[in-house]
Amino acid sequence: MRTPKSVRGLEDLGRVRLSRHFFLRDFLYSEIAATFGIRNVPDDPDLTIAAGRQLCELLLEPLHETFGGIAIRSAYRSPAVNEYGNRHGYNCATNEKTYAAHIWDRRDADGCMGAMACVVVPWFLDRYEQDRDWRPLAWWIHDHLPYSRLQFFPKLAAFNIGWHERPRRTIHSYADPKGFLTKPGMANHAGSHAAEYPGFPPFRPGRPL
């Protein structure tokens, strides 16, 4: 698929269905792009679609099915959008560090593809507002989903969740308690953590199209 150069072409790209509940258009909105008039459209739609389908089918669909829906805060960033955000302090890493993460249409330095989205789980948000502890959801995801990276934030219990061909399996937080919850090599990385998320609904995998 070619990079769209017209409204009709962008409409067609947005209609691409990535999984049962998600279309590509769901992931293209950017506050940076909207505010500063920067084009947030992939240069390589085919790579974007391939990576996005893995993210949606393997990670977002199970979250949607298990918890009754999710809200997408941000997801795909074009290199131009991400570079602007990095230069102006909008919490964007450098483009090189963001390839195969929020920049879906670029492979990383190792030639791997990946995709990332920042999401909110409303079911969990209601709990988080009572005790401000993000760790139960982190451990649930760790036990159930083939994620690569999780990064939690204080507002809305939002978190980045990424799929990658070579998953890192790291969980880090900018919300208290800050820092790494787990990563390979840490004593808490293996085994079940079910005791950390009592009362969670039973796991429901995403249904294929």
Overall description:
This protein has helices spanning 7-14, 31-36, 45-67, 79-87, 95-98, 122-131, 135-144, and strands spanning 71-74, 114-120, 149-152, 159-164, 170-173, 179-182. It is an alpha+beta fold. It has one domain (9-196). Strands 1-2-4-3-5-6 form a 6-stranded mixed beta sheet. It is globular.
Could you provide a short overview of the structure?
The protein has helices at residues 7-14, 31-36, 45-67, 79-87, 95-98, 122-131, 135-144; strands at 71-74, 114-120, 149-152, 159-164, 170-173, 179-182. With 209 residues, the protein is of the alpha+beta class. A hairpin with a 6-residue loop joins strand 3 (149-152) and strand 4.
Topology:
Blueprint: H1 7-14, H2 31-36, H3 45-67, E1 71-74, H4 79-87, H5 95-98, E2 114-120, H6 122-131, H7 135-144, E3 149-152, E4 159-164, E5 170-173, E6 179-182
Parallel strand pairs: 3-5
Antiparallel strand pairs: 1-2, 2-4, 3-4, 5-6
- Helix residue percentage: 25-40%
What gap, in angstroms, lies between the N and C termini? 21 Å
SSE arrangement, N to C:
HHHEHHEHHEEEE
State the total count of DSSP E strands: 6
Number of domains: 1
Average pLDDT taken over every residue: 96
Radius of gyration: 17 Å
Helical segment count: 7
Low-confidence stretches: none
Secondary-structure class: alpha+beta
Q: Which band does the percent of strand residues land in? A: 5-15%
**Largest sheet strand order:** 1-2-4-3-5-6
How does the overall form come out from the CA principal axes?
A: globular
Please outline the major beta sheet: 6 strands, mixed
